[in-house]
Amino acid sequence: MTRSPLPPVPARDMAVDLLVIGAGTGMGAALAAHERGLSTLIVEKTEFVGGSTARSGGAFWIPANPVLMENGSTDSLEQGERYLRAAVGDSSPEARWQAFLANGKAAIDLLRRTTPLTFQWTKGYSDYHPELAGGTAVGRTCEPRPFDVSVLGEERNRLRSAGVEAPVPMPVTSADYKWMNLMFRIPHRGVPRVVKRFAQGLGGLALRREYSSAGHALAAGLFAGVLEAGVPVWTCTAVDRLLTGEGGRVTGAVLTQNGREVTVTARRGVVLATGGFDHDMDMRHKFQLEATQPGWSLGSEGNTGDGIKVGEEVGAATALMDQAWWFPEVAPPPGGAPSVLLAERSLPGQFIVDGSGRRFVNEALDYMSFGQLVQERERAGDPVGDMWMVFDRGYRNSYVFAGSLLPRMPLPKAW
Ligand SMILES: Cc1cc2nc3c(=O)[nH]c(=O)nc-3n(C[C@H](O)[C@H](O)[C@H](O)COP(=O)(O)OP(=O)(O)OC[C@H]3O[C@@H](n4cnc5c(N)ncnc54)[C@H](O)[C@@H]3O)c2cc1C
């Protein structure tokens, strides 16, 4: 639920050690800096903290991370390295993915020390390419456990709302969703999950607790850590341009709050954590598809590529601009919201055809590969067009569809 945000903390000229721009995962950078004794400031363009992170699944894929290893996973950094070499290869500099691998454990340890979050392994959520060297079908994905966002107190009003919300208050994790979706097929696994989360959601309200899951829990936990650390967060404050000093080193930024400019000097650095450019149509048309429509985003509205733009102004390079987090969804009725397809494509009794009625994809592909394939077809001058999912009665009567249609429920007329 979207709340009325609190008025922003007034911005002023000042000097800090580290300036973090963007209050999504940037809050993690701020927590790391604060723990090392650096004075830190977070600035956020919108009225809300959380960014697309708050709207996301909140799942993290980190090989051999402590949550996996404490729960019986046989993963290792060597296996993770084999997988990254096979899956990422030279599409990203090796030094960068090696750093991701080497520092994953420290990142999770940091979140455990500096936030009230706890995590679980989503066991059975397969790697997206389990067939590659080092891949695993039991998976490495972990996620936050349900988190009580009421611990934020008054600051709760400053937290961005979740993207996909359950129709009733219940904190559904990915691990729950798997069994809830199969509730009509395997009731003894699905029904207890529904009862547990429903009781937690509703019982929590009675106790004045408000449980969240997924990315909303992650963002709330990060925010709770930031508040506890006393790191200031200036909302409604956008980076305008970066300041540079000797040798082109970034020394701070000019920010705008309610039309007023302030200058923040950053002695040790500036972290650009302003998310992607899903709400800048010029950039999407330039780097991705001409056919892209403004409604095609599940991300936070503040993400207009600002960090990329100010970075480029001071000479930063860019890469992988044609890539995004892709996700197939059911087209929204006029004025309505899209419905994402989570597990639907992986279940028996359905197939997908392109606009000309041809089957063109392994429906159960991970959502990234699905999106990339659609893009490739577009680029090759053979656009997929409107895609149609064809399913039988057995399928419809067995599984949840588009997030909220329970088995046997009729399809909405607008579809
Ligand atoms: C529905 C959905 C589900 C997803 N699920 C997952 C998942 O389970 N696991 C996973 O790894 N990834 C997932 N992703 C992708 C993931 O959410 C993003 O990659 C990640 O949240 C990006 O984090 P960020 O900190 O870069 O950006 P954000 O979290 O979007 O934060 C950027 C912030 O910067 C602010 N900002 C923008 N411009 C300025 C400016 N000029 N000045 C100041 N502030 C500015 C924005 O308002 C925003 O608050 C998902 C994405 C979506 C949309």
From TrEMBL:
* Cofactor(s) needed: FAD
Alphabetized Pfam families for the sequence: FAD_binding_2
The record's section on InterPro entries has: FAD-dep_OxRdtase_2_FAD-bd, FAD-oxidoreductase_2, FAD/NAD-bd_sf, Succ_DH/fumarate_Rdtase_cat_sf
Could you list this entry's UniProt keywords, alphabetically sorted. FAD, Flavoprotein, Oxidoreductase
Domain FAD-dependent oxidoreductase 2 FAD-binding residues, every copy: 17-397
Gene3D superfamilies, alphabetically? FAD/NAD(P)-binding domain (3.50.50.60)
Keyword Oxidoreductase annotated: yes
What name has this protein been given in UniProt? FAD-dependent oxidoreductase 2 FAD-binding domain-containing protein
Organism, as annotated: Pseudonocardia xishanensis
